[in-house]
Amino acid sequence: MRTLLRARMDTHTANEAIRNGSMGATVQEILEQVRPEAAYFTCMDGGRTCLLVFDMRDSSQMPALLERFFLDMEAEVELIPVMNADELREGLGALS
Fold first, then answer.
1. Element (H or E) spanning 21, and its range?
2. How far apart are CA 18 and CA 96, in angstroms?
3. What is the distance between the alpha carbons of residues 15 and 88, in angstroms, rounded to a whole number?
């Protein structure tokens, strides 16, 4: 299932990761593990935020995918099922 992962990193923890030089490597390792079709980085709700769109084949993947955000970045994480335009058209077509 196409999923949007929103991870808002703890400011203090992310500041420390930037100061000690580990932020880049941590983000790269997460991207290699999740393999998102899209990855965006921004500021939301006053904090550094990562938005990843990826295919979650099974809910059993959640611990492996999310623990890096919780442990390394003390992030607040949300997982949201999403559709692209083609999937929306297909879903709407099933209504008729």
1. none
2. 52
3. 39
